[in-house]
Amino acid sequence: MTVQVLFASVLLSAVLVVLARSDSCPDDFTRVGNKCYYVSLEATNWHVADRTCRKLGADLMVFDDAQDQALTTAHLKSLGLTFSDSYRHSVWVGINCLGDRRHFSLSKTGDEIPFKNWVPQQPDNASPEEDCVAFANYNRAYGYHDIECDFDFPFVCERRLSCLCPRQQLLKAEDF
Ligand SMILES: [Ca+2]
C-alpha cells in the first residue's frame, strides 16, 4: 500500500512538473491567450524578421481567429505600437507568396491562412513586388495587407503553449 501511495505521489509530481513547464513561456516571451509572444520594436525587413524568430525557436505570428487578433493587438498597443491608420505602422506576420506568385499562404508550411482578414482593397500588389504580408490598421480596418518584403517594420514571433490549460487561466481582452 505504501509503495502504491509513493508511486502515485511521484507520478503526480511528475505530471505537475510537466504541466508547470508547458504552461510557461521562455525568457523574453510573454504569454497572450494560448501563445507566447516575442515582440521586436526594432524594424527590419521581412526576411530578417523571419530569421530572427526561427533563431528563437519561434515563427512570425499568424492570427488563428478574430479573438486572437484582438488579444494580440491589445498586447502590442500596450507595448507602444500605435497602429494609426497607415500601412507605415505595420508589424510583419508569417505570410507571403514567395513560393507561389500571388497565392498567399503560411510562410512556415505553405498551408492556407487560417484567418484571412485582409483590410479593404488588399492584397493589391500595388508595387508590384508586394510578396510579403504585414498587419496594420489600414484602410479603416485592422488586418493584413501585402507589401514589399524589404520594408522595415517591427515584428512579432510566436510559440504555442502545448498544455491543456484551464480556460480561466487564459488572458482575456479585458485584461489589457
Ligand atoms: Ca498592398
UniProtKB/TrEMBL annotation:
Q: Which residues form the signal peptide?
A: 1-20
UniProt entry keywords in alphabetical sequence: Lectin, Signal
**Which InterPro entries is this protein grouped with?**
C-type_lectin-like, C-type_lectin-like/link_sf, C-type_lectin/snaclec_domain, CTDL_fold
Which molecular-function annotations from GO does this UniProt entry contain?
carbohydrate binding
Q: Which Pfam families match?
A: Lectin_C
Q: CDD domains, from UniProt?
A: CLECT
Q: Which residues form the C-type lectin domain?
A: 32-158
The name this protein carries in UniProt is Blast:C-type lectin domain family 4 member M
